[in-house]
Design a protein that fits this description.
Largest sheet: 3 strands, mixed
Oligomer: single chain
Strand order of the largest sheet: 2-1-6
Strand content: 25-35%
Order of helices and strands: HEHEEEEE
CATH topology of the domain at 2-68 and 101-112: hypothetical protein PF0899 fold
Distance between the termini: 31 Å
Shape: elongated
CATH architecture of the domain at 2-68 and 101-112: 2-Layer Sandwich
Length: 113
Protein backbone atom coordinates (compact mmCIF):
# COMPACT_ATOMS: atom_id res chain seq x y z
CA UNK A 1 0.00 0.00 0.00
CA UNK A 2 1.71 3.22 -1.14
CA UNK A 3 -0.26 5.18 1.48
CA UNK A 4 2.08 3.69 4.10
CA UNK A 5 5.14 5.27 2.49
CA UNK A 6 3.32 8.57 2.12
CA UNK A 7 2.34 8.61 5.80
CA UNK A 8 5.85 7.63 6.88
CA UNK A 9 7.21 10.60 4.93
CA UNK A 10 4.57 12.96 6.38
CA UNK A 11 5.31 11.79 9.91
CA UNK A 12 9.08 11.95 9.43
CA UNK A 13 8.78 15.52 8.13
CA UNK A 14 6.48 16.57 10.98
CA UNK A 15 8.66 14.92 13.64
CA UNK A 16 11.82 16.49 12.22
CA UNK A 17 10.18 19.91 12.26
CA UNK A 18 8.92 19.29 15.79
CA UNK A 19 12.40 18.36 16.99
CA UNK A 20 13.89 21.47 15.38
CA UNK A 21 11.26 23.54 17.21
CA UNK A 22 12.10 21.67 20.43
CA UNK A 23 8.54 20.32 20.66
CA UNK A 24 7.69 17.54 23.05
CA UNK A 25 4.42 16.67 21.36
CA UNK A 26 2.67 17.01 18.02
CA UNK A 27 -1.06 17.47 18.53
CA UNK A 28 -2.26 17.73 14.95
CA UNK A 29 -1.00 17.32 11.41
CA UNK A 30 -3.13 19.00 8.78
CA UNK A 31 -2.62 17.96 5.18
CA UNK A 32 -3.98 19.04 1.82
CA UNK A 33 -4.96 16.10 -0.40
CA UNK A 34 -5.94 16.53 -4.03
CA UNK A 35 -8.74 14.32 -5.34
CA UNK A 36 -6.70 13.48 -8.45
CA UNK A 37 -4.10 11.68 -6.33
CA UNK A 38 -6.52 8.77 -5.91
CA UNK A 39 -5.18 8.28 -2.39
CA UNK A 40 -7.80 6.92 -0.03
CA UNK A 41 -8.16 9.07 3.10
CA UNK A 42 -9.18 5.98 5.08
CA UNK A 43 -5.91 4.26 4.15
CA UNK A 44 -3.94 7.37 5.16
CA UNK A 45 -5.70 7.43 8.52
CA UNK A 46 -5.07 3.73 9.10
CA UNK A 47 -1.38 4.09 8.29
CA UNK A 48 -1.13 7.26 10.40
CA UNK A 49 -2.63 5.53 13.43
CA UNK A 50 -0.12 2.71 13.04
CA UNK A 51 3.08 4.68 12.39
CA UNK A 52 2.55 7.45 14.95
CA UNK A 53 2.86 4.98 17.86
CA UNK A 54 5.96 5.55 19.98
CA UNK A 55 6.71 8.99 18.49
CA UNK A 56 6.09 12.57 19.62
CA UNK A 57 3.04 12.40 17.33
CA UNK A 58 1.54 9.45 19.24
CA UNK A 59 -1.48 11.48 20.39
CA UNK A 60 -1.79 13.55 17.23
CA UNK A 61 -4.81 13.66 14.99
CA UNK A 62 -4.59 13.77 11.22
CA UNK A 63 -6.79 16.36 9.55
CA UNK A 64 -7.28 15.83 5.82
CA UNK A 65 -8.52 18.71 3.67
CA UNK A 66 -9.68 17.71 0.21
CA UNK A 67 -8.70 19.76 -2.83
CA UNK A 68 -11.09 19.40 -5.79
CA UNK A 69 -9.93 18.63 -9.32
CA UNK A 70 -9.84 21.80 -11.43
CA UNK A 71 -9.18 21.36 -15.15
CA UNK A 72 -8.68 23.73 -18.06
CA UNK A 73 -10.20 23.10 -21.48
CA UNK A 74 -7.81 24.08 -24.26
CA UNK A 75 -10.71 24.19 -26.75
CA UNK A 76 -13.14 26.43 -24.82
CA UNK A 77 -10.58 28.15 -22.58
CA UNK A 78 -12.82 27.22 -19.67
CA UNK A 79 -11.66 26.35 -16.18
CA UNK A 80 -13.99 23.81 -14.57
CA UNK A 81 -14.27 21.44 -11.64
CA UNK A 82 -14.21 17.77 -12.52
CA UNK A 83 -16.50 15.71 -10.35
CA UNK A 84 -15.89 12.25 -11.80
CA UNK A 85 -12.17 11.96 -12.73
CA UNK A 86 -13.13 11.92 -16.42
CA UNK A 87 -12.20 15.60 -16.73
CA UNK A 88 -14.79 16.21 -19.44
CA UNK A 89 -15.42 19.84 -20.32
CA UNK A 90 -19.05 20.74 -19.51
CA UNK A 91 -19.30 22.90 -22.66
CA UNK A 92 -17.60 21.01 -25.51
CA UNK A 93 -17.42 17.56 -23.84
CA UNK A 94 -13.74 17.09 -24.70
CA UNK A 95 -11.51 15.47 -22.11
CA UNK A 96 -9.05 17.85 -20.52
CA UNK A 97 -5.52 16.71 -19.73
CA UNK A 98 -4.66 20.06 -18.18
CA UNK A 99 -4.97 19.89 -14.41
CA UNK A 100 -4.82 23.23 -12.63
CA UNK A 101 -5.48 21.76 -9.18
CA UNK A 102 -6.16 18.46 -7.48
CA UNK A 103 -2.85 16.62 -7.62
CA UNK A 104 -1.45 18.13 -4.42
CA UNK A 105 -0.34 16.39 -1.28
CA UNK A 106 1.42 18.44 1.36
CA UNK A 107 1.49 19.33 5.03
CA UNK A 108 -0.48 22.52 5.57
CA UNK A 109 0.10 22.97 9.30
CA UNK A 110 1.26 21.38 12.53
CA UNK A 111 0.12 21.96 16.09
CA UNK A 112 2.99 21.30 18.44
CA UNK A 113 3.79 21.71 22.12
Amino acid sequence: MHEFEIVKNILNTAIEYGKQAEATQIQQIEIQLGKATNILPESLQLAFDFFKQGTIAENACLEINHIPIICFCLTCYLEFQSLDHLNECPVCRRVSNTLRQGNELYIKSLKIL
